[in-house]
Every structure is written in C-alpha cells, then in structure tokens.
C-alpha cells in the first residue's frame, strides 16, 4: 500500500517551518509522511494538501502562479482534503480588498480589511490593526451540525491570530467558525473537501494541533 | 474578545536561561527547552527569548535553541538580542522564530526596520525600547519624559521614548516591547506612566516589561498602563508564581485572558 502523504505547498511565500513542524508533530506515529514541496507532481500524488500563506495576498497569488503550483492546488481543491491557513485561506475566495487582488474563486465571497481604527474594545482599550493575539472561535452549526474538523475542540476555544484582513463568504453555509473583533467575522471557511482558517493552528498550542490531527483523518 | 497576553521572557546566554538585576549580576535559571515547555503547559501565550550573549561567536547557539524549542512548543516565539541586519531576521525565522526584535540596531540604522518590515511583514518585526526617566541635566534641559538607551542600557541616545516608538510604528514595527530600565529587576511594578504614554501614542500593540514583582503588577500594566501584553521573567523562572496563577488573577480583575 502506498505511503499516506500530506503535502505542504511551498510556493516561495515566507517561512513554512512552523506549519510543517506542527503537521509533522501530529503525523509522527500515525504512519503519515509530511513533505514540504515545490513540485506540482508531489501535490498531485499526496493524499492531503496544506496551503499556507503569509505576507500580502497579491504576492502570494503571483508566487503561486509563477511557481507552477496553481494548477495542482486547484486540482487538489476539486478532489482531496485541502486545508488553507491565513493567506492560504484568503486566497480561496473570489477577491481581496488588499491591493484589489483576485483570488482562486473556490469559495464565493470577498476578503475585507478591518475598519476599526479609533474604536474602543469592550474593556476600554483601543482596537489595534492587525489583530494580534489569542481570540475565541465559535463553531458554526450548519444543517449537518458543526464541521467534523472541530471534533474534540470545544466551542469557544482560543486560537492565535495575526491579520488585518478577513474573509466574508457570500454563502453563510461556507462559514465554519466565527470570531469577535469589533464585529463578528468568519475565521474558518469550509466547502466540500476544503477547510481553511484565518488563525494559525500551528501557533495555537493543543487546540491547534487537534485541528491538524483531525485533518489527517478527515474524510469529506 | 482578543485576550491580553502573558509573555514569559527567557534571557539566554551560553545555551542557558539567566536573569539579571538592572542588567547585571546574572543568575542561572535553567535549560531553555525545558523552561519553554513548562511555560507552554502553564498556558503562556507567547515566549520571548533574549540573546544576551556579548560576543559574536556565541550567536549561532540561539538558532539551535530556537530550532529545538520550535519543534516541541507550538505557540508564538519572539527572539531578540544582537539582531542587526535583515538577514538576521531571515535566519531566525527559518530557525522557527515567529517574530524578531530589534533594539540598538534600529537606533543606529532606522531604515533596517523599514526594510525588514517590507520584506517579512510588520507582524514579525518587533522594536524593543529600553527607556529611562530623564534626570539631572537631561531633565533640566528637556523636561519630563523618558530617554531611549542602547547597548544593554549603557548608552543614552538622547531620543525621546514616546517619539521613538511612534517613529518605529510608522517605519513598520508591528509591536513595541517597552522596558523601563528604572524598574527592571526591582520588583516594584511597571512604569505605568511610561507604558500609558507609549500605548496611547501608537496604533500597534505594546508589550510592557521591567519591574514585575507580583501578579497585581500584571493587572496594573493592562488596566492602568494600557498594555496589550505583559512580559515578566524572574517571577516565573524561580517558581514564585505560575502563568496559570497570573491568568486567574487577571481574569478575576476583569482582564480578558486565554484560559
């Protein structure tokens, strides 16, 4: 039987070490191989795909195209479990306000910027953008209950965020989780075999590792 | 709601965690990986490693420490101390750091903050400011306020700390790590006036540092100082308090914390 593999897509945008370390940490002992790869054929051959992303979305979209990995990522998005993280989530939508950038169009909707400067938080301190730090994630219950990727993760669990932009899916059924920062925004999206988060599971201690562990076993 | 963060700080030299009083008198406090794992178990929101190695030959030790910690501890890691050029950022991020903190080098060459922020994003660029209340001739000449010191607190730059923080945020610092040199190691609490002045002046988060002696000081740093995060070293290293105890008191006082 072929070795089960998870491909972490390396299209040249920043540092993938923390994502790959966290996935490797949970994959150890489960017989799952984790590869960080720049090769489309590795993405095609993998059982599951993680799409990270950091920096500006325009740079990420350009690098994804220039690296030759875009087609393989789109094929994965149509055929096997795919997990997006941070800008790797934002790229799944149609469009981002950040430098007026088109996305991959896999989740209908747009990516918007927080407009919170000058406003104060419930405790009286002012909102800062980017949102940086730990915030609670409220799991969205669809027609079939909460998403299986949340298995074992308590509703309202804390995850680590660093971002100025957030996803605004046009179909409420694609929202898998929400967080409060000046407004309630979508912090996790899901559609068919795609699940993606704005927050960083790889920096969210045990609850983040639980998400990656669930991803290894998820059968959409 | 976004939680206020508690950040244990590990001063590292020669591969060990140490803690000084007023920037001198180092005491050994243990193995960095063990300490990092213990703080993670206690619920620390983030960890800061400060490489206080004075000589350049010891520099690569910090890379190995960060690699070792990052493979076992899955919370954000900040590294500072001896960071001079944009390539230092690359090396530390590759080793597993999430944020890199500049101090003296930002004063010597402010452009490095612009360059590092453009290249790697503001979210991973921290500027550390060591500030000391003006006294004597400086006070008489320039009025009340705080000056920025560099080189481990030995050199007064003559820069005003609030104006410097504002400039660094404009240059692309994603966060300011603000240490009161007057309070550091004294256990008498943060300089709350300094913390408040900087926090009110800039749009990016402020980490208060220097002077924590008990858990109420952490609450005061947030509620009176307006800090987004509080950093402490000795109260945690020597087992006086756990991070969990700190969070319990902060929650009781109405500060949003991750529990």
From TrEMBL, chain A:
InterPro entries tied to this protein: Class_I_gatase-like (IPR029062), GATASE (IPR017926), Imidazole-glycPsynth_HisH (IPR010139)
GO molecular function terms listed in the Swiss-Prot or TrEMBL record: glycosyltransferase activity
Pfam families (UniProt xref): GATase
Classification via PROSITE patterns: GATASE_TYPE_1 (PS51273)
Keywords: Amino-acid biosynthesis, Cytoplasm, Glutamine amidotransferase, Glycosyltransferase, Histidine biosynthesis, Hydrolase, Lyase, Transferase
Lineage: Bacteria, Pseudomonadati, Pseudomonadota, Betaproteobacteria, Burkholderiales
UniProt subcellular location: Cytoplasm
Protein name per the record: Imidazole glycerol phosphate synthase subunit HisH
E.C. number(s) listed in UniProt: 4.3.2.10, 3.5.1.2
Glutamine amidotransferase domain residues: 8-216
Organism: Ideonella paludis
From TrEMBL, chain B:
Involved pathway(s): Amino-acid biosynthesis; L-histidine biosynthesis; L-histidine from 5-phospho-alpha-D-ribose 1-diphosphate: step 5/9
A GO term for molecular function: lyase activity
Gene assigned in the entry: hisF
Main location: cytoplasm
Compartment annotation: Cytoplasm
UniProt entry keywords in alphabetical sequence: Amino-acid biosynthesis, Cytoplasm, Histidine biosynthesis, Lyase
UniProt xrefs under InterPro entries: Aldolase_TIM, His_biosynth, HisF, IGPS_HisA/HisF, RibuloseP-bd_barrel
Listed name of the protein: Imidazole glycerol phosphate synthase subunit HisF
Quaternary structure note: Heterodimer of HisH and HisF.
Similarity comment text for this entry: Belongs to the HisA/HisF family.
Active site: 11, 130
Role noted for this protein: IGPS catalyzes the conversion of PRFAR and glutamine to IGP, AICAR and glutamate. The HisF subunit catalyzes the cyclization activity that produces IGP and AICAR from PRFAR using the ammonia provided by the HisH subunit.
EC nos: 4.3.2.10
PANTHER family to which the protein is assigned, alphabetical: IMIDAZOLE GLYCEROL PHOSPHATE SYNTHASE HISHF, IMIDAZOLE GLYCEROL PHOSPHATE SYNTHASE SUBUNIT HISF/H IGP SYNTHASE SUBUNIT HISF/H
């Amino acid at each position: 039987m072929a070795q089960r593999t998870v491909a972490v897509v390396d299209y040249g945008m920043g540092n993938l070490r923390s994502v790959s370390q966290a996935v490797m940490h949970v994959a150890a002992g489960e017989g799952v191989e984790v590869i960080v790869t720049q090769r489309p054929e590795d993405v095609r051959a993998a059982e599951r795909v993680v799409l990270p992303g950091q920096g500006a979305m325009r740079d990420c979209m350009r690098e994804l195209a220039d690296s030759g990995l875009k087609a393989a990522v789109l094929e994965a998005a149509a055929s096997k479990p795919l997990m997006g993280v941070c800008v790797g989530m934002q790229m799944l939508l149609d469009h981002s306000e950040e430098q007026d950038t088109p996305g991959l169009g896999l989740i209908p909707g747009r990516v918007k910027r927080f407009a919170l400067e000058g406003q104060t938080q419930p405790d009286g301190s002012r909102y800062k953008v980017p949102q940086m730090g730990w915030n609670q994630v409220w799991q969205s219950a669809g027609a079939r209950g909460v998403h299986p990727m949340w298995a074992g993760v308590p509703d309202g669990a804390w995850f680590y965020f660093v971002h100025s932009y957030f996803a605004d899916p046009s179909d409420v059924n694609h929202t898998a989780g929400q967080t409060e920062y000046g407004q309630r925004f979508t912090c996790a999206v899901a559609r068919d075999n795609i699940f993606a988060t704005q927050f960083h599971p790889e920096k969210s201690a045990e609850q983040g590792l639980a998400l990656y562990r669930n991803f290894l076993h998820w059968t959409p | 709601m976004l939680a206020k963060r508690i950040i244990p700080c590990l001063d590292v030299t020669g591969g060990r965690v140490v803690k000084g009083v007023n920037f001198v008198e180092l005491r050994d406090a243990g193995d960095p990986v063990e300490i990092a794992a213990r703080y993670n178990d206690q619920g620390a929101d983030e960890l800061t490693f400060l490489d206080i190695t004075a000589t350049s030959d010891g520099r690569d030790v910090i890379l190995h420490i960060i690699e070792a910690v990052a493979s076992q501890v899955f919370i954000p890691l900040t590294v500072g101390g001896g960071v001079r050029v944009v390539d230092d950022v690359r090396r530390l991020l590759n080793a597993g750091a999430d944020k890199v903190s500049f101090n003296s080098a930002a004063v010597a060459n402010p452009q490095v903050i612009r360059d590092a922020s453009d290249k790697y994003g503001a979210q991973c660029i921290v500027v550390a400011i060591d500030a000391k209340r003006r006294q004597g001739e400086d006070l008489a000449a320039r009025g009340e306020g705080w000056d920025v010191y560099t080189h481990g607190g030995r050199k007064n730059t003559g820069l005003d700390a609030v104006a410097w923080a504002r400039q660094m945020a404009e240059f692309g610092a994603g966060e300011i790590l603000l240490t009161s040199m007057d309070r550091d190691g004294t256990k008498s609490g943060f300089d709350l006036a300094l913390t408040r002045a900087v926090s009110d002046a800039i749009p990016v988060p402020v980490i208060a540092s220097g002077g924590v002696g008990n858990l109420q000081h952490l609450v005061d740093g947030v509620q009176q100082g307006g800090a987004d995060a509080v950093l402490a070293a000795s109260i945690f290293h020597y087992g006086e308090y756990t991070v969990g105890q700190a969070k319990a008191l902060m929650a009781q006082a109405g500060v949003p914390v991750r529990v």
